[in-house]
TrEMBL record:
It is found in: Membrane. The keyword Magnesium does not apply. This is Solute carrier family 25 member 38. It comes from the Eukaryota. Keywords: Membrane, Transmembrane, Transport.
Amino acid sequence: MELAAAHPALKAFMCGSLSGTCSTLLFQPLDLVKTRLQTLQNNAKPGAPKVGMFRVFIHVIRTENFFSLWKGVSPSFVRCIPGVGIYFSTFYSMKQHFFLNRAPNAGEAVLLGAGARTVAGICMLPFTVIKTRFESGFYNYASVPGALRSMYETEGVRSLFSGLTATLLRDAPFSGIYVMFYSQAKRALPQEVTSAPYAPLVNFSCGVVAGIMASLVTQPADVVKTHIQVSPSHWSTADAVRYIYK
């Protein structure tokens, strides 16, 4: 009853936080493998064979343990639970303010998603940096507060916001493209399909397609972001791009 009577923006925050919790637990191993794959170049020898996703999975389990696949889940929770909540509540508030009486078109959906993700990304950036470092395997932080303290004392406050440009170049376009493809895919389907008992499956399928398209476009920015945030030398975005392509 109390949730039903809550402000819609607060309900969006709470539902977003719940979905962030579930997705973090489910996909954290894939996130860790992605980070390891993106940082392999740091230690790769010239001419070394390409390492795939399953090889990294097996390597982590053999050299560490099975539960090491969830390394970084603590900062992921700290980042995702409020972060997704901030995203959804900001998205809802912007949509209600600018598009109260109509659905946004494709271009407006891009701006709406990008704007909400920018707000959430900036708010949660220090925890994004810590999450990336936990997953990389290059740092042995004992806890999220310990990581914050260590980075602040040894590298300064600037390190907590490293990769801001690359993060926004990834997050804002990703969310904008995702919202655009998701809304347009649902709009293109017949109403009897979207309102049928299969509606949850339709929503899931539209989300998967939208996520794949957004990931393909923003993957280069994600690689650059990872390299910047793992490095303690405070690279600029241009420095990271040059390093990756050298």
